[in-house]
Amino acid sequence: MSNAPLPPEEADFFGQDMDLSEMVKGILDLVVSNVGDRRLGRALVDLGNLLAPQELTKVYQTITEKLTDASRQRVARLAPQWNHFLSRGGKVYRREQLWPGVMLYRSAAEGAVRPAMVCFTSKRAGLFMPNCRFLELIGRHPVDVVILTSDTGTFGDWSLCGSRSFHDSLATLKAELAGRGIRPSLYLGASAGGGPAVIAAMLDGRASGIMFGGRFYWPGRKIPLSRAGSAFEPLCACWQGPRVPLHSIFGANMAWDAENTRRLSRLMPHLQANPIPNDDKHSPMATLAARQKLRPVVDLIVQAAAGKPVNFDLVRMP
């Protein structure tokens, strides 16, 4: 997205075009050189956010076969979600980089027509879970997924192929996907990607939008003032476009997330607020998983991507 260089400690450990053998070597080199937990943990997070489930399964199996018991336990401690892929395998997707920070995961399921979702994620946070885990959860359904990653933590300065605005970048992405026979039916975002996701759905006019712990940053707050001219187009409550389904899922007791939903509701009166009772965390996914409601919510996400009406009533959900 932004071309600004990242500090060395924040830079990606793995290029999006690296092959799996290079990634295996990179992880093994880090383990053998006995780097600190923070650095190794970030490398493991990067892999989990980049690879498709079946790729992570292969990498993890290869790595664990070459490690000592102590090193294997360390990797398992730093990336506990990886154990899922070692024991169960992984759903199959065809991964393709469209641009830096834009990765397409095409479902290998049979059938020419299937839903497609575009996910706005911040660096390393994914969708409040590793991206590969999210892909695995929805993998029971034939869905194509585009994952957008922002290095700056916000999409206010999002630019694809020289596009000068968020609206233009969205149009560029949709045109590229249309050339592959893909039309987004859902925009999904977490944290700083949540606001952009529902805005993208509104601008699209034919897709739903869902945000988890969503936040909306305006020029001057996290977006450098020097880039304010290319930030989000002005939005107002007098928007005349189609009123597509929009949902916000957040912890009822997480004050800042609740406030962001209220602010966006002033611009989008049809935004449905879905607070999670007795939850003060910024990560709704973690709470839903702890309460064994994550899979039902993921199923609703897939239904929304299929164009079906959904109700995220987290109070009455069994």
CATH fold name of the largest domain, please? Rossmann fold
Enumerate the spans where pLDDT stays under 50 for 5 or more consecutive residues.
1-11, 228-234
Going by helix content, strand content and strand pairing, the class is alpha/beta
CATH homologous group name of the largest domain: Alpha/Beta hydrolase fold, catalytic domain
Total beta strand runs = 8
List descriptors:
318 residues, Rossmann fold, disordered N terminus, 38% helix, 8-stranded mixed sheet, 2 domains, globular, alpha/beta
Structure description:
The protein has helices at 20-32, 37-50, 53-66, 69-78, 82-88, 131-138, 166-178, 194-204, 255-267, 284-290, 294-305, and strands spanning 93-99, 102-107, 116-122, 144-150, 186-190, 208-212, 246-251, 271-276. With 318 residues, it is an alpha/beta fold. It has 2 domains: 18-88, no CATH class; 93-305, 3-Layer(aba) Sandwich (Rossmann fold), CATH 3.40.50.1820. The protein has an 8-stranded mixed β-sheet with strand order 1-2-4-3-5-6-7-8, sandwiched between helices. It is globular, with a radius of gyration of 19 Å.
In short:
This protein is of the alpha/beta class and 318 residues long.
Fold blueprint:
Layout: H1 20-32, H2 37-50, H3 53-66, H4 69-78, H5 82-88, E1 93-99, E2 102-107, E3 116-122, H6 131-138, E4 144-150, H7 166-178, E5 186-190, H8 194-204, E6 208-212, E7 246-251, H9 255-267, E8 271-276, H10 284-290, H11 294-305
Parallel strand pairs: 3-4, 3-5, 5-6, 6-7, 7-8
Antiparallel strand pairs: 1-2, 2-4
Helix pairs in contact: 1-2, 1-3, 3-5
